[in-house]
Design goal:
- It contains five helices and eight strands; from the N terminus they run E-H-E-E-E-H-E-H-E-E-E-H-H.
- By secondary structure, the chain is an alpha/beta fold.
- It is globular, with a radius of gyration of 19 Å.
Length: about 180
């Protein structure tokens, strides 16, 4: 039986990354960002093992990590997702939503009180964001939408821009140059 309405995702359940240091990852996400550790699984696989553990982001969404040992990984694998792939650090990242600029300001203060002062703040026009790196070299963003009308696009406009030839991208859209560097 075919339904007339296609099924689609209800929300994010979890995003998973690798960590070499679960204690530092726990200290960062629970101690610095206030996300409680809510579930851990330990499994043997062949001669190795892996741990899969989850932090509660709120609203039924979770951030998960794998600590792996001898389960098929390369010995020198990188946990810094973007840098490990030879990309600028900001390409692959996770962004957490905040609702107001006051909450964003409070998050900046909370992070500084908890010893994180390497923050980058950017006003993107439609949102304001702060950026930091976790112990695994993964970029973390806290973002508040400040102009939902500026973000909203009709699907045909979004598709037109997706297909825009690079040589017709306006010079006024230029951003600072960045490049991949090793972590």
């Amino acid at each position: 039986m075919t339904t007339s309405t296609p099924l689609r995702s209800k929300s994010l359940h979890h995003v998973a990354y690798a960590t070499r240091d679960p204690e530092a990852t726990h200290a960062f996400y629970t101690g610095k960002l206030g996300m409680p550790l809510v579930h851990t699984e330990n499994h043997r696989q062949g001669d190795g093992y892996f741990r899969h553990f989850f932090f509660d982001m709120g609203n039924g969404d979770y951030l998960a990590f794998f600590q792996i040992e001898d389960v098929g990984e390369e010995k020198d694998y990188k946990t810094a997702v973007s840098l490990g792939a030879g990309l600028p650090v900001w390409v692959n990242h996770i962004a957490f939503r905040l609702d107001t600029e006051e909450e964003l300001g409070a998050m900046v203060e909370q992070l500084r009180e908890r010893g994180i002062d390497q923050l980058q703040e950017i006003d993107h026009g439609w949102c304001r964001s702060i950026y930091l790196l976790d112990p695994n070299g993964i970029m973390v963003e806290f973002c508040v939408t400040t102009d939902s009308e500026a973000f909203a696009q009709a699907e045909d406009e979004a598709l037109r821009l997706l297909r825009e030839p690079p040589d017709s991208i306006p010079a006024a859209s230029a951003k600072e140059v960045s490049e991949a560097t090793s972590a």
